[in-house]
Specification:
By secondary structure, the protein is mainly alpha-helical. It has one domain (about 5-70). About 65% of the residues lie in helices and about 0% in strands. The longest helix has 17 residues, at about 40-55. It is elongated and about 40 Å long. The N and C termini lie far apart (about 30 Å).
Amino acid sequence: MSKNACRNLCSGGLVNCHALQLPRLYNVYKEQGIIENFEQLLDNIFQPLFEVTKDPNSHPQLHLFLKNVSQALGLII
């Protein structure tokens, strides 16, 4: 799974169940040559999250998604 794919998970505004299956899908991504190791998979997931936390304008859709999730969970942003 690429960083762009992770960023695009939020484009529909709904939590994508695919994201919850990442540990199970690791072997699929590795066999297809999309990633080389589990560290790369985690980096592709979390780096966009860190980037948007630091600069919400870097990924506006991801920022909106995180804002909606935090509101749904009762967190303050």
